[in-house]
Amino acid sequence: MAALDSLSLFTSLGLSEQKARETLKNSALSAQLREAATQAQQTLGSTIDKATGILLYGLASRLRDTRRLSFLVSYIASKKIHTEPQLSAALEYVRSHPLDPIDTVDFERECGVGVIVTPEQIEEAVEAAINRHRPQLLVERYHFNMGLLMGEARAVLKWADGKMIKNEVDMQVLHLLGPKLEADLEKKFKVAKARLEETDRRTAKDVVENGETADQTLSLMEQLRGEALKFHKPGENYKTPGYVVTPHTMNLLKQHLEITGGQVRTRFPPEPNGILHIGHAKAINFNFGYAKEEAKFFTAICDMVAWLGYTPYKVTYASDYFDQLYAWAVELIRRGLAYVCHQRGEELKGHNTLPSPWRDRPMEESLLLFEAMRKGKFSEGEATLRMKLVMEDGKMDPVAYRVKYTPHHRTGDKWCIYPTYDYTHCLCDSIEHITHSLCTKEFQARRSSYFWLCNALDVYCPVQWEYGRLNLHYAVVSKRKILQLVATGAVRDWDDPRLFTLTALRRRGFPPEAINNFCARVGVTVAQTTMEPHLLEACVRDVLNDTAPRAMAVLESLRVIITNFPAAKSLDIQVPNFPADETKGFHQVPFAPIVFIERTDFKEEPEPGFKRLAWGQPVGLRHTGYVIELQHVVKGPSGCVESLEVTCRRADAGEKPKAFIHWVSQPLMCEVRLYERLFQHKNPEDPTEVPGGFLSDLNLASLHVVDAALVDCSVALAKPFDKFQFERLGYFSVDPDSHQGKLVFNRTVTLKEDPGKV
Q1: pLDDT tens-digit map of 282-305
Q2: Quick check: helix, strand or coil at residue 1?
Q3: pTM for this structure?
């Protein structure tokens, strides 16, 4: 019967029957709406008009601090708040002013109480907006975005009724354009916006210059645009949606500001159980820009943070706080908010598990058992400490402590119980007075436990902000799956240049500046982002084009003998380090009667369009000022071309050749590793795309090793991670496998143009 009464009440407020029934399914919303309606009826009588009813529903569904319900209902019932903009302003005001008493004068000023917007003012504002866009309106007619007119009028008249503005826009547009014509009724095809925001224009320009088409660029911009995160100021945590305010909140925030001085504090907290990947680069940029533990991986994390160019304010460990965390766990038990449970791990899996039979055990008993856990009187899995709360995803009573007989790399065997992420995360943030606890979207389900735990212990509560992960196509970044790749021999280790771990990208030769630029272009939004690898590679080319000095190397060499070499001994050739900017200096390479060129730069029987060395087709040697012309082809017993005999002339002594090719003389022998995508499909982890699993999708040609490549002697003193552009071939980085007798180069990325063409 009560449900029928509520249904009747809700429909009388202006809700459709379907909406009213949906509301009844939410007990908290139903109770709040009933209370609001009942209070309003005391002022308005039993009948509430639809406009007021809709405002009451908006209030009940959006108000988080129920203490303010009566206060706001009184303003709605008295018609002091009578529009949606006023209600939104009122809700924002009470959210940002959680302390009593509310300054009613300030509240009314901020919510437009008493402000009267006349029809004449609306008419004038709409007319002014139409006049600003009149030429475009006359051309586009009813295909014009009328929302722009309404938005401009609303910007002038903040408290005007939205429906009145829309009606005025419709009327004035009809007066200007007349009734709709047949052409006005045709569907308008969507086109990419010609005008980008200034930041988008810069990004688009960058991408176009890196070889992307305008359409690809605009598509990328649309992908990168998302709902950006809007952060609270330090000390104003309570202004964040969903933040829980307690009687202690404001004093704790005051103390927090005294400690931090109002500075922004973030933290980069990956669990040190694997190597960082490209998604972590976004996290590092986000955390450092806006402002648990295995020794091997912790060191790698520190190295990568430093490599990306960031210096932490402080490096801390969760183990630094083990004593404090344990003391707080004891306090939780004393407050009746945690208990020792003996359910096994398999019994705790899932989101619809039954309550623990030990949930209501006496506090004194849990204290004794927790102490017994600490003293090692339980085996692993025999007992856990669980917190009494239900998380957003329905998970009940998450585990705070587990028994684990594994010595810690910093605390040794002092502890045999260790805190979980759900327990440690927020409390370590609280201890360190983090202002913005930044994490990816999969942690959103833990936000309630984050706030709950800090408030349960009456300690400073930071704000957890979630942002979308950054993923790349043709890649896997899961630690477990990378371990499988290593175990099966598909890759050498975590730093194999075909992976997208940060150590792998560094080894391949990706500059940290390029990774940071890529993360900046992607931006930080709530939505998950999956990008094409070539967009990252474009950022790499941008940086290396300005920072990697040029050298010449030949991968598949062909010996060339210059029979009329113009000097008795080799010549020293000055080669610019950066041909586009010779102020950056030169390096010297020898030019001798014997040179080596790429085998693909010569053809006995060239196809149409081939511009390099062939019979009757001379070719220039880069930087020498000489042109060579074929005289004789020397072949081995198998018919394979072994060497060429050519003559040379000065380039300015005859017709200009069609092409200039790179070459080496008196070279160093080196090893070159050429990399392609590790996987064949965009989404190797997607079973619909790769039914056999990601290991079945490996590209067997992802690594090609050239054992006897030749490189000019200018790179003889190169060190690991030094980078070069090998002319016409691509960008290369010195691999740590290099030794005194032989350099090893990894191809970082190819050049923008086809490396086989001039």
Answers
A1: 444 434 343 454 555 667 777 877
A2: coil
A3: 0.63
